[in-house]
Prior knowledge:
This protein has helices spanning 2-12, 22-28, 54-85, 92-120, 122-126, 129-140, 280-295, and strands at 14-19, 31-34, 37-50, 144-150, 162-165, 171-183, 190-197, 209-225, 231-233, 236-244, 247-252, 257-259, 262-265, 274-278. The chain is α+β, with helices and mostly antiparallel strands. The protein has three domains: 2-30 and 226-295, conserved putative lor/sdh protein from methanococcus maripaludis s2 fold (Beta Barrel); 46-53 and 141-219, Beta Barrel (Elongation Factor Tu (Ef-tu), domain 3); 54-132. The protein is rod-shaped, with a radius of gyration of 29 Å.
Amino acid sequence: MIVSLICLLHAATLGVPVTMSPEDQTRLGVEETVMTATEAPQALPAIVQVLDAGALAALDADLATALAAAGASQRDYQRTLGLARNDQSASRAAVEAARSKAEGDEARASLLRRRLALEWGPAIAAMSAQDRASLLDAIATGDAALLRADSLEAPGGLVGTVTITLPDRQTATAEPIGLTGSASTRLQTIGTLAVLRGPEALSLRSGRSLGGTIDSGESLTGILLPREAIVRLDGDAWAYVETGPDTFFRQQIVSPRIVADGWLVTTVFTPGDRVVTSGAGALLAVERADESAESE
């Protein structure tokens, strides 16, 4: 029974054979590449959200104001205390008032520091004021986008490079900052904060959700399928494998991992397979035409 199930699963991932003469292959630009085992960083699937940095900017401005006030009141307290010690024009009440104000301003600054860590994560809180200001300036001008990536396969959080899939199916890489300060109420996961820089950031408006991955820091061995090899049919992804000089089978891509150079698969495809990496769309068109002719 186990052998039968394996055969059924294998058959479910195969399309019908497509026959094409070598002359037609040359004319339509059909080319194959021999697959080899490849090691790539293991990336976990993630849901990526473009965050609204306005709240961070407001909190950062409040913190800068509070720190300036705390510094000024501390200096005023030290000046008043020095005058009182020298029996000059500073009463005990004035010293107490200055000390109270200094402590109050410091308490407010400390509260805002804690809020920064709790709401935006310890990595954002640990950044220098200048680095945070540079980041916010880049986001405001469209040169950067602040992202949150959550993976159900790492609910406790994972700091790694975030790769997002853009609407045009291209990918872009975002540098990790650290873990988020709070869990996702919907996914119940701790996310990764990352910054995407470059021209792609301009099109990413806050509130947008995208698919992507988070680099787990571990390696995965499999077959790397170039994006040019992938065709889509009935909601699934496929690639064509050459089984003879003029024969091709459409093979379903199962559980792929999206990496920078393509899709990494660990099942179905094996080293030595001759995969069509140019002209796959032409093979699909021929296959569908043959199916239409048979149905008629």
